[in-house]
Amino acid sequence: MNKHKKNISIAIPTYNSSAYLNLLIKQLIKSSVVNEIVISDDCSESSELKNIKLIISKNKNYFPKINFKILENSKRSGPFINKYLCIENCNNDLVYQIDSDNLPMLNFDKFVKNNLIPNFVKDNIYYPSKIFQFRKYNYLSIPASYLFQGTKYKVILKNKSYEFTKEIIQNSITHGTQITDDKNRRWLLNIGNYFVDKNIFIDSMKEGFNFTKEQLFAADQFLVSYLWLKNNNSIKVMKNHYHFHRKRNDSISFEEKDRTGKNFEIVENMILDLV
Description:
Elements: E1 8-14, H1 18-28, E2 34-41, H2 46-62, E3 67-72, H3 79-88, E4 94-97, E5 102-104, H4 108-119, E6 124-133, E7 153-156, E8 162-164, H5 166-175, H6 185-190, E9 195-197, H7 198-205, H8 213-218, H9 220-230, E10 234-245, H10 252-255, H11 257-272
Parallel strand pairs: 1-2, 1-4, 2-3, 6-10
Antiparallel strand pairs: 4-9, 5-10, 6-7, 8-10
Helix pairs in contact: 1-2, 9-11
């Protein structure tokens, strides 16, 4: 790896999700490699923003080494632009983008120090190889099962580290072949929650501002995958990279699920057109 700083920034986009935020932050501020947490709020209700500031204030008192930064969007921009702004405002080159309703892997520091940093390639975006979903909706606190991965619904993309190039994904779309171990391409292209080089990400995503509001709201992660591949970069999954997902029935992905399916087909055709 071209030597990254040992510290990383955490980018957390929010929209009316402050109830989930405190638990996520508490898991991350324990890390010895995290020195910055950037939260970009996409014009939530005023009470939500108040809660976010209160959460930050309390955690800051106990962990002064963490640089907290809150961005407040004056109008709702959608998840794609909100994530872009969040990552753009990070100070470290190495960024971990995680959604506010998720929880990081249990061995976060070990993975970052021993797996990610020594093998980091700037032209790769590092997606999780698996996720664990809590079966119930709206978990606000860690149940005992958080410590037992097998008790949750598990989605496996790969049981090993693997690099998905543009050509591999195009071939899968053309011939209908499965390239993941457990789920289809839709999971791979839409999974999000990634480690990425800030500067490469910003340069690769600029074109996203030209897409329609419907695409930016209902297919934000599909667009991230498309634009990353378009710029001749690869999607890499790493064996020990995973996260926990707290399902929400008020999330954008839940509300936009019908339109998301249509946009997925559009994005796949766009990927096929890449040269």
